[in-house]
Amino acid sequence: MDAARDTGSITMVGAMHPNRNKAVERQVRAAVFVGFVAAAAILLFWLVFRADPAVHEGSVQAVLLLGTLALMAEAWQFMLPRSAAASIAFIPFTAMALVVPNWVVLAAIAGAKLIEAIYSRRAFVKSTFNIALFVAMFGSTILVYRAVGGTGFLPQHGQPPISFADVTQINGMPAIAAFFVVFAVNMMLLSTVIALHSDRTVMAVWRENHLPGLALELLAAPIVFLFAWVYVAYGPIGACLVWVPILGYRHTIKTTLDLETTNRELLELMIKSIEARDPYTSGHSRRVQHYAMLIARALGLSEREVEHVSTSALLHDVGKIHEKYGKILTKEEKLSPDEWALMREHPIDGANLVATMTRLQQFVGPVRHHHENWDGTGYPDGLAGDLIPLASRIIMFADTIDAMTTARPYRGPLSEEVVRAEIVRRRGEQFDPAIADSILSSPIWRQLFVPAHPSIRGHEMALAGSTTVEVVGASRTLAKRIAHRVSNDR
Ligand SMILES: [Fe+2]
């Protein structure tokens, strides 16, 4: 069976319930974890209060000013991929913890996050998690900072502010420990809640969402330290002046993320514009992308390799955008030999298109060779065995599975047993035998036939980028996603 033409719609109402149950299960697990984080936040608040219950001179003024800057930053949040948001509020928050490392800071942070939650009308569980997350982050940060000898930057009564050299000597190492704790707790708690909500490992979520932003986070550490000292040495005016270049830092992060988002959206626009021409292939590339990711994970590939397979799969049929395929794609009858010959050019056209973008060079091979057969009888180059890019060999499975499990004018969707028989029959001919054996015996095999539209890359609460990240997006329900798919898939 050639998957290139054989794609189309799907009927899937029957088996929604198991997935819905699973989604509810995930939500319950995540809610229990939110409760745990809230309890930890209360405990940490109490421990910080017990360590230093006093309200020191100048501390209220410090948290009011820095808290106001943090609120401004919260109001100027920027969206990350997949319904998460980031802000640079953690810079004044962390500076507050260095200036006044006691409970007053935690109260101010909880208050600022509460104001922000009310203003943005966020759901109760998400608001609770975000407030608890920040109190837990900065509660543990203050405890560690004090435990390793860190002291508040604010001068004692009547004393002049200490010099930058002195403050670095006294508090430099404790501040490094504090930064480590802020980042570590943020990454750990966020990755865990996302993993619980999406059936993925904490490490996988962390690698995908936090690792790319680590360099920017480390860049923020000296900025926070300097910012805290400038506030103490030069007062509110000095702090506001330093705030301006910090806004530049925020702009750098936002621009980087915007670029990534734009690139991803451009790819999706390309894919949608191809599929808009042919109702039978609508949603095909996204489904092939999802199946390819499941197979790649079943094979034990790294997240980076899974990402490579994922984008290759999304782009695999991009060559069909060419005008010459227009009539063939909408033709309901069987193709003539000439039309088949023409259709066989689409991997070459796709590879040429992909090659025009510098950052897509790595996908040229996988796109060009996604119709190569393991035994060398495929097209366009007749490559065989390991000479075929791994991503192309995976796409071959994903493409075939989608083609067989979607309805055609001349037949309904085929069953899992029929697909299995086809893969066994063509194992070593069309399909890589090692991959065939792996997926046929893998627990992931069943997931390939779950009739629900999957979240494409992990989970809607997933995020990327900076430590300032928090959960904002309202999760779409599985039912909504299914409805969306049904309406899109003709
Ligand atoms: Fe194709």
Q: Can you walk through the features of this model?
A:
The chain is mainly alpha-helical. It has two domains: 17-261, Arp2/3 complex 21 kDa subunit ARPC3 (Orthogonal Bundle), CATH 1.10.1760; 278-451, Hypothetical protein af1432. The protein has helices spanning 16-51, 59-75, 90-99, 103-120, 124-147, 164-198, 202-209, 214-275, 284-298, 303-315, 326-330, 337-343, 346-355, 364-368, 390-405, 416-425, 433-440, 444-447, 478-488, and strands at 78-80, 84-86, 470-471. It has a three-stranded antiparallel sheet with strand order 1-2-3. Helix 1 (16-51) packs antiparallel against helix 6 (164-198), helix 9 (284-298) crosses helix 15 and helix 15 (390-405) packs across helix 16 (416-425). The site of fe (ii) ion (FE2) has 6 residues, from loops.
